[in-house]
Write a structure and sequence with these properties.
- The chain is mainly beta.
- It is built from four helices and 27 strands.
- The strands form seven sheets. A five-stranded mixed sheet has the order 21-20-19-27-22, with no helix packed on it.
- A hairpin with a 5-residue loop joins strand 4 and strand 5.
- The longest helix is centred in the first third of the chain and has 35 residues.
Length: 412
């Protein structure tokens, strides 16, 4: 009997020792798991390992400002749009209309501001998107929308030559405005004339309603010329805005320059550097001489009426069917066919009222006459030079005749 309690005591002692070992093992495992897995901080906050232990990303210090303000209406087409950044530099500025056409702009060298290089279109909604970065590379963006003014008074430019035409080497780009321009710099800046092959092309104002463009010398044969009229929104005079946006292209044909010698009473036609024909002519009579100078054919009429009263000659003549007429000046100088003078006049006497006459038949129906031959081989834009006439040189703005002005005067 004494042995039974001893056995029972030994059994209970083993159970207590096993519980202690299990508790120690569980504690060690918990310690390992805690050390490897990393538990939540005691303060309950969570850290994102991808952020290098930082609690959050600080906001960009860069501040973007756009003028005009979002939703602005009747905004001026020039001088109102500007984007700036403080405590940072602009990295992106996009301004576009509702059709997606972007406005060209210029960023300041320090990235602090952006402005358009030209004017905006009138009556147009624009969207602005701007992004700036602070010194830490953090970005700040802003988006606004505004609408430009709708003008009450407008102007357009009537241009020559026509789109798609082929013209002579003397043809300038000539634009007449429907309103007198008081800010010629703004208007000229909105017109771009380029050539291929490239050549310097400059504009010159005649008065306040006409602007012509030309190179220093005649165009080279085969040149392609492009005229871009971006007048929509240009304030040409106070409260008067352009409403025209158009692209015009034309081509320079072969080179033809004809020289009239009023003393010798001949006209030599030069084509691509070679004299192809010499025609007898009659120039202005001693009392009504022909202008000297370089003149450009601006209009062609197979038959037209010429009335002396329209050019200051009273009722001296009124010929209702002048054949093969080509205008050389606004004041009424033409090279044209003449059927009323005797055949012997041409090449021997000057009898006209200032025009250059070539032998012709009434009705312009005979293609073999000198006048018909010259008419059929001439383009608008061809040059006719008159020399040795006892008259002054034609004024540069009398027709498309800016070639009578030196290049230094033209670009001044």
């Amino acid at each position: 009997m004494n042995g039974q309690p001893i056995s029972a005591g030994v059994g209970r002692g083993r159970r207590r020792g096993g519980v202690r070992l299990q508790a120690l093992a569980a504690g060690a495992l918990l310690l390992v798991l805690t050390a490897c897995g990393g538990g939540d901080p005691a303060d309950g906050s969570k850290k994102d390992p991808a952020q290098g232990g930082k609690q959050e990303i600080a906001a960009s210090k860069a501040v973007v400002t756009i003028a005009p303000k979002d939703g602005a209406d009747s905004v001026a087409t020039s001088g109102a749009l500007k984007v700036t950044a403080e405590q940072g530099k602009l990295t992106t500025v996009t301004v576009a209309d509702t059709k997606g056409a972007e406005v060209e702009g210029k960023m300041a060298a320090d990235g602090a501001s952006w402005q358009p290089v030209g004017h905006l279109a009138a009556g147009t909604e624009y969207k602005v998107h701007a992004v700036a970065q602070d010194a830490e590379g953090r970005e700040s963006a802003k988006d606004t929308t505004f609408t430009t003014l709708v003008p009450k008074n407008t102007f357009i430019g009537h241009y020559t030559p026509e789109d798609g035409s082929t013209v002579g080497v003397g043809m300038p780009v000539s634009i007449r405005f429907t309103r007198g321009i008081t800010d010629p710099e703004a208007v000229e800046k909105a017109i771009k004339v380029t050539a291929q092959p490239a050549v310097q092309v400059e504009g010159h104002w005649f008065g306040n309603d006409r602007l012509d463009f030309r190179p220093e010398k005649y165009w080279a044969a085969g040149t392609k010329v492009t005229v871009e009229l971006n007048l929509d929104g240009v304030e040409g005079r106070p409260g008067v805005y352009g409403k025209q946006k158009k692209k015009v292209t034309f081509t320079i044909g072969r080179r033809q320059v004809s020289t009239v010698d009023a003393s010798a009473k001949t006209m030599k036609i030069e084509r691509d550097g070679k004299i192809i024909k010499t025609l007898p002519i009659t120039a202005g009579a001693p009392s009504t001489t022909t202008y000297n100078g370089q003149m450009v054919i601006s209009e062609k009429y197979k038959v037209t009426r010429m009335n002396g009263a329209t050019v200051g000659f009273g009722g001296e003549y009124d010929i209702k069917d002048v054949p093969h007429a080509m205008r050389l000046s606004t004041s009424g100088t033409f090279v044209h066919g003449n059927y009323w003078a005797s055949a012997g006049t041409f090449g021997s006497a000057n009898v006209s009222h200032g025009c250059v006459g070539l032998r012709d038949t009434r009705g312009a129906g005979d293609s073999s006459t000198p006048a018909a031959w010259f008419y059929d081989r001439s383009l608008i834009g061809d040059v006719v030079v008159v020399k040795n006439s006892k008259d002054k040189q034609i004024a540069p703005d009398n027709g498309l005749n800016g070639w009578n002005m030196s290049w230094s005067e033209w670009i001044k």
